[in-house]
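To the wet lab folks,

You asked to see what we're planning to order before we commit. Fair enough. Below is the target structure as tokens, and below that is the sequence we designed to fit it. If anything looks off to you, flag it before the synthesis order goes out.
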């Protein structure tokens, strides 16, 4: 560390466009004892072997890994006269890498807590909140001088003394719940005239959500301006969770967020492997042009047992990284603790990063497109009814199984310009929509767009207040007669000929929902399925229907402008995610296909579970197939990826002069062009293949 305050900055030739070039990130999250034994040579060799071009290195905050001069900035007790942070920064710069310094402001040690009790997060009774995982350290409140002033000085010290491009803040929001510190109480009262809510969704919650968003956004602005004042190209970039930038104001994000880093490090439980790519889609749904990087842990993600210093199976790690970058969330790996007792994570990281380096030259100039979008209702404060879990997951799984390329569009971004690229918008259970959002969706349908909606979509306004009827009732062709109720042994009967009935040959009924609403359909609507009235599920002798099908279970409409709508008055997505009944997935696929009303621009046919992404340029298309076919597809971790059998990729093209290449296999293949479509047969694929079609002159 340089100690002469008059010494010039280490470099003056860095440029502000570095985030665009930093596409493969290696993170080293140091443990306090790492200064005793960490091997800088190992890490620098790994950065080179994995073709990483950027790194994030632990620097300070909760523990400083450099000789800080700031009072109460806790130095590792093993630091001595070493500077592990500085050694890694210098080595990475010699490799030509971008460098970020990691800080963590969410907790402080006992000496700082005793000297500055005003920095601490507090519960409703005013008690300081001790860390849940370690004794005698204390959680901080983001709305106090600790974040605004102390962390600002830490960031400035690092930027002043080291050749870094950014400060990366982990757990930067401090305490995740409502903090009742004096600073938070006063700030909220001064801005709103109100008292903090006593809990989530309690009185003043709506105002709290807006206030918190504004305060956190201002904090980002303070930090970013503080480091840019020292070096104009340097940025302060807070870490984000899987729900992207929902807690930040758009204007400040545009000014202060050159890049997003998404902290969804892996899957656990019954999460599907496509959850990696969903992070990329969700971020584009809010900020479609903002670069995104997905953080991947080399260890398993188990939130209860927290095996943070362990190693996940190789195929699990590779799949998470590859599905992420196929959907636009470029790779970042993190290793907790710089000691490496288990080296099994190294080859899969190198393999996945090398794979990205191989396809990057083509994909970097293309953008991901789709004809279908799933509405992302993740605005902070979003209503969550007790039966509201799994709706998005179920529709997402069904669309992946149906091989429908699709994107997200945020409920914060419902504008004509953002909706225009899509032919179909899917509302899995967008229950909380404001009048302005309803107006945009209604206009979208009038101008030829189509909607597929389910369950309680539009039954609540933006504040979570229940409406008397569906806000989109006139568009969907339905009127609410009875609120949602829980049922068992429910079935829906096929009634009449319709595209949504296809694929159910050999039966007159299929399983319905577990939460259903009573609706009436308008006269101009079609009803291809109706609910069979309730009948017992026990004793077995009583399990038979007593009455004929009556109320609508699926309602379809064709609109004058060319758009189509489909509405399911039951929890279709949630029950598919829970029970994975094939008929429910077929119903989703049929609805989207009928709503699209034409042959899709891109189709991929063949056996296996494949996550698709369509990358487009002016005169080229790259269709990415991520092979999720494995024995553990719905229950991690993945042990093995089964090679795909032959796949047929068909793409609408404007010319019959088309070249085709498989980017991973690195071979040219024949494209047969007929009736305006180029068809390529992919003989097999491992984890990833990308079919690149090019008709540039």
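Sequence we intend to order:
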């Amino acid at each position: 560390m340089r100690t002469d305050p008059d010494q010039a900055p280490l470099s003056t030739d860095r440029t502000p466009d570095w985030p665009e070039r930093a596409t493969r990130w290696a993170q080293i999250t140091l443990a306090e004892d790492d200064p005793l034994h960490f091997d800088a040579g190992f890490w620098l060799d790994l950065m080179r072997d994995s073709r990483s071009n950027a790194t994030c290195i632990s620097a300070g905050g909760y523990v400083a890994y450099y000789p800080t001069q700031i009072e109460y900035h806790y130095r590792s007790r093993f630091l001595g006269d070493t500077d592990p942070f500085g050694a890694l920064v210098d080595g990475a710069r010699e490799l030509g890498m971008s460098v970020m310094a990691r800080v963590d402001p969410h907790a402080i040690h006992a000496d700082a807590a005793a000297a500055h009790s005003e920095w601490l997060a507090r519960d409703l009774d005013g008690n300081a909140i001790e860390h849940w995982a370690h004794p005698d350290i204390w959680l901080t409140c983001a709305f106090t001088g600790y974040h605004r002033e102390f962390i600002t000085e830490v960031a400035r010290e690092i930027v002043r003394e080291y050749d870094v491009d950014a400060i990366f803040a982990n757990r930067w929001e401090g305490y995740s719940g409502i903090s009742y510190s004096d600073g938070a109480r006063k700030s909220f009262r001064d801005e709103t005239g109100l008292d903090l809510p006593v809990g989530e969704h309690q009185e003043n919650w709506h105002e709290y959500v807006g206030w918190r968003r504004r305060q956190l956004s201002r904090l980002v602005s303070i930090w970013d301006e503080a480091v840019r004042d020292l070096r104009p190209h340097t940025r302060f970039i807070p870490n984000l969770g899987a729900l992207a930038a929902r807690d930040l104001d758009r204007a400040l994000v545009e000014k202060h967020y050159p890049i997003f880093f998404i902290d969804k490090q892996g899957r656990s439980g019954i999460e599907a492997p496509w959850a990696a790519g969903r992070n990329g889609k969700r971020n584009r749904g809010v900020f479609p042009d903002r670069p995104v990087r997905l953080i991947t842990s080399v260890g398993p993600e188990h939130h209860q047992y927290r095996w943070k210093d362990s190693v996940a199976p190789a195929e699990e790690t590779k799949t998470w990284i590859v599905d992420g970058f196929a959907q636009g969330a470029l790779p970042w790996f993190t290793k907790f603790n710089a000691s490496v007792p288990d080296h099994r994570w190294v080859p899969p990281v190198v393999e996945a990063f090398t794979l990205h380096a191989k396809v990057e030259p083509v994909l970097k100039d293309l953008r991901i497109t789709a004809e279908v979008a799933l509405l992302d209702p993740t605005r902070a404060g979003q209503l969550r009814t007790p039966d509201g879990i799994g709706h998005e997951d179920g529709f997402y799984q069904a669309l992946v199984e149906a091989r429908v390329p699709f994107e997200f569009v945020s409920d914060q971004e419902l504008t004509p310009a953002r909706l225009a690229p899509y032919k179909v918008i899917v509302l899995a259970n967008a229950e909380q929509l404001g009048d302005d959002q309803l107006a945009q969706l209604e206009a979208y349908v009038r101008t030829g767009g189509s909607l597929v909606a389910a369950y309680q979509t539009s039954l609540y306004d933006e504040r979570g207040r229940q409406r008397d009827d569906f806000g989109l009732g006139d568009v969907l062709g339905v009127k609410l007669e009875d609120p949602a109720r829980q049922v068992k042994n429910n079935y829906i009967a096929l009634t009449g000929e319709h595209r949504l009935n296809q694929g159910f040959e050999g039966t007159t009924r299929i399983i319905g929902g577990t939460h259903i609403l009573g609706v009436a359909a308008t006269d101009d609507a079609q009803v291809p399925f109706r609910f069979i009235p309730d009948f017992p599920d026990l004793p077995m002798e009583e399990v038979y229907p007593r009455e004929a099908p009556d109320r609508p279970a699926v309602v379809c409409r064709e609109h004058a402008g060319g758009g189509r709508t489909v509405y399911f008055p039951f929890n279709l997505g949630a029950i598919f995610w829970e029970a994975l009944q094939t008929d429910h997935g077929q119903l989703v696929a049929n609805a989207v296909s009928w709503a699209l009303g034409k042959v899709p621009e891109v189709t991929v046919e063949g056996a296996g579970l494949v996550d698709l992404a369509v990358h487009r340029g002016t005169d080229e298309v790259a269709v990415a197939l991520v092979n999720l076919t494995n024995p553990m597809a719905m229950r991690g971790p993945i042990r093995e990826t089964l090679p795909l059998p032959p796949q047929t990729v068909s793409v609408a093209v404007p010319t019959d002069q088309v070249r085709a290449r498989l980017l991973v296999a690195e071979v040219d293949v024949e494209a047969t062009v007929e009736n305006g479509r180029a068809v390529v047969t992919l003989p097999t694929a491992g984890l990833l293949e990308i079919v690149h079609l090019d008709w540039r002159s």
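Structural context that might help your review: Confidence is low (pLDDT under 50) at residues 2-12. The CA atoms of residues 37 and 339 lie 7 Å apart.

Thanks,
Computational group
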